[in-house]
Amino acid sequence: MNRFARAYLGTWKAILASRPAVSLLLLAVIVYAFYYPAAYRSQVATHLPVAIVDQDQSAVSRALVERLSSANRVRIVLRTTDFGEARHALESRRVDAIIVVPEKLERGLLTGAPAAGLAIYVNGAYLVRASTVGATVQSVLTGAVAENLAPLARAAGIRALSPIQTDTRPLFNTAQGYGSYVVPGVAVLIIQQTLLMGVVLLSAGRRGKIAPSRIDFLGAAAAFCTIGVAGCLFYFGFVFWFQDYPRGGNLVGMLLATALYVPAVVFFALLLGSAFDRPERSAQVLAASSVPFFFLSGLAWPFSAMPVPLALAAHFIPSTSGIQVFIKLNQMGASLAEVWPDLAGLSVLTCGYGLLAWIRWKPQKDLARLEPAPSRSPGEPTP
Questions:
Q1: C-alpha–C-alpha distance, residues 261 and 188, integer Å
Q2: Could you report how far apart the first and last alpha carbons of the chain are, in Å?
Q3: N or C, where is the chain less crowded by C-beta within 10 Å?
Q4: Are strands 74-80 and 119-122 parallel, antiparallel or unpaired?
Q5: Higher confidence at residue 357 or residue 182?
Q6: What is the pLDDT of residues 339-364, one digit of tens each?
Q7: With helix as H, strand as E and coil as C, how does 117-177 read?
Q8: CA distances from 300 to 183, 186, 190, 305, 340 (A)
Q9: Tell me: the pLDDT tens digits for 306-349?
């Protein structure tokens, strides 16, 4: 068995002998595949508590309340005519929204008075909930108005135009769900974070033990890359199929991107690991890095809305280019020509971090040669 193979197998033995490393590099990847998507299984927010302030007490308002009561996405927990009571419920977080039906709503809809209109007050801290309530109320109001005012309009001789019919056909997120939007991107970040924390935890303060030579360094990196590639294939192949997320856009491109993304993460982790003297310090520093890395990926917040220095710094994180390229390849079926800037970015990170890690992980004999000679007392014989 040559030295590379011994280093490769030795790294696996070191991983399996360390309970924290096994938990981060192996178990966490599997657990997160089912734990994280569970929160988005329904894809859309449902049964959101709302308060109704009915100041109209008309046929339209009663039909609106009845339709809201039967809607799946909202749940009426408070019905009152006092806005102050409903506001207190919103401020105390007993409801997510207040729907105010103003006086003379029915009359205003018939006559076209500009003062007639619903008011919706939502908790802006939860954007998905707020948009869900707004869309539900709009849909319910349209049905209530059509059902209750159409006969009155015909009796009064009002000739209304036929409403425009909208046929919505989503191209990629066919379920139009939040899970299909966020989980494919977060899966790329999960692969990076589990690999990053595991490699740094295992390598912090142990450069001389893990990679006493260049061949040992390459063998250790290859072992870590094996775990990363297996994680990518597990998520992009099995998990996306099992959770029924958009998938299978460009298989060849996905494999190529995996071959660039995983080494970039591994070399990034080895470089960071060389900066820590103890594994405990690495856990303290990296534990809270997932959320900033996600918001810097451009998935939840566009790069054009970020400060320029922050947007540039984001591209030094492998997950930034990784999320962009995997979303385009796996979910949107983009061609290699359409994602070449992201692939080029991953190539630069792989080479750059690989070179820096190669320099930092000097062989043990090189480190010994660079250490200064110990000081001797005057008159002490030279060894």
A1: 10
A2: 38
A3: C
A4: unpaired
A5: 357
A6: 999 999 999 999 999 999 888 877 65
A7: CCEEEECCCCHHHHHHHHHHHHHHHHHHHHHHHHHHHHHCCCCCCCCCCCCCCCCCCCCCC
A8: 12, 10, 16, 11, 22
A9: 888 998 999 999 999 999 999 888 888 888 888 999 999 999 99
Pairing of strands 48-54, 74-80: parallel
Q: In the numeric block, which tokens belong to residue 327?
A: 């979303």
Report how far residue 204's alpha carbon sits from residue 281's, in angstroms, rounded to the nearest whole number.
9
Instruction: Find tokens 């400060």 and name the residue.
Output: 307
Give 87-94's long-range contacts (Cβ < 8 A, gap of 24+).
87/121, 89/51, 90/51, 90/121, 90/123, 93/123, 94/49
Residue that is written with structure tokens 């595991």 in the block: 198
